[in-house]
Amino acid sequence: MALDRETVRRIAYLARIRVPEDALDGLAGELSNIIGWIEQLNEVDTEGVEPMTSVVAMEAPKREDVINDGQYPDRVLANAPQADDDYYAVPKVVE
Amino acid sequence: MAALTSLTLAEASKGLADGEFSAVELTQAHIGALEKARELNAFITETPELALEQARASDERRKQGNVVGPMDGIPIANKDLFCTEGVLTTAASHILDGFKPTYESTVSEKLKSAGSVMLGKTNLDEFAMGSATVTSYYGPTKNPWRGKSDKDLVPGGSSGGSAAAVAAGLCLGATGTDTGGSIRQPASFCGIVGMKPTYGRCSRWGVIAFASSLDQPGPFTRTVSDTAMMLQIMAGHDPKDSTSAPFALPDFAAALTGDIRGMKIGIPKEYRIDGMPDAIEKLWQQGIDWVKDAGADIVDVSLPLTKYALPVYYIIAPAEASSNLARYDGVRYGLRVDGDSLDEMYENTRGEGFGEEVRRRVLIGTYALSAGYYDAYYLKAQQVRKLISEEFSKVFETVDALLTPTAPSAAFAIGEKMDDPIAMYLNDVFTVPSSLAGLPGISVPAGLDENGLPLGMQIIGKAFDEESVLRVAGVMERQANFTAKPEFSAGEAS
After folding, report:
1. Could you say which of B47, B106, B323, B428 is the most buried, measured as most Cβ atoms within 10 Å of its Cβ?
2. pTM of the full predicted structure?
3. Residue A86 burial by Cβ neighbours in a 10 Å radius (0-12, 13-18, 19+)
């Protein structure tokens, strides 16, 4: 299935990636090629096949629901482009 | 000091134990080599001061009789996808500008605790997305091999910096990660040994995530026994990674008995693909003869779904990547590009911070997971993945290991295959199927092609049976007796 310019614009917005206007057509072509190549999977009969959800047959491990980490906001915030007290700072969200 | 950089890890370990040289001398020799090899661009960050400090501490431990193991004092490098406390960690992406983790990945921590010395962080494809180490924000890595080519060649990827560094004698071992072939294919291109263990064998904690159901750390070394030694330290259960296997580790070195008599080695006919170079075809036949001569039984097997592995991979890996890479939002670490609103800040940061291949894959993944397409693409891919995995399980009812080429070509020139993503993806045609099934695989250098470039053979095993993989690899290494050296070695161009 071919992706058009508008589809690329929509998924770029969903992915929150700014794509310049003049790159949309090129990307639409590239992504259509890749998706077209992927569609050979339709040749495989998967009727009734359970999708693979875990790679190695293993029970998901469980642990006690207790706090076992934390209490070091300075380390958590050490790489923040902008922080204020013990908070990440972002552009204003509500007026 | 050039001799110190041409030792194997085991030889260096013995030299340290016998007092022939100190960890500081060994480390200095490698720092010297590294400085002369900058044109390879194998490293994003060099950490010589840290290395010398660790080497001095190792010598001190040895003096006190407190050596912590065979890798105490051994200089290694980490792929710049492993978070290293206080040391810049980039994933070769602009979006992680300036990121210095406040924690250490489990695998690099294990190597650190084992006394090894970290020389630096190696180059890779951005977020490990690539097969040639050409998508790095920090520029491409050059393969130390050149053969008869007059062009600079790629080292493979994504762990190309680690592979180039080990091949050129800049370190005795290095870590890599393999999602669809990112350890095995560069090992083949650079004429060294590279192993992807079973999914779950090495902890993914602190490894920057690309595709979580596929990513697996593993070692690069120059010999199979060095691989066994390094894997022994890197592997093991980690409660911080919920997919880490809670199994006791076997003694990997003990698996190298050199005896494969009676082992059944499968040869999957679907790995003989159109357009495969004659040299690879011939070397594969040679490899089959080698294991046969060593007493193994050759069994022809069929894995009919092999050709669908790549398209399955190129749905699942981008889908997981689009989800994993959502965290790069300009808020918590790395690059921020301002905008008038929060959304605009996200879009600007990610638009500027991600390179073209990463953008392409995040968009494919977002599309495959978006409303209305999920069943057609993602669910379908997970179903075919299941069938591929079952196909392997069935074949492993009759064989102990599979023998295939590692990659469909030798190293190619930097710049080639750049304008055709699918041509680049085909590099991983022999490594992706076993990745989808989570199986262990190794690439062993087996010979040179007509241009003097190394080619690897791949051995694939059952889940958690690295021992058989290593055993066959050890025999393959002995039979191949691969002694060729790259044109660029230990910092000296020959």
Report:
1. B428
2. 0.97
3. exposed
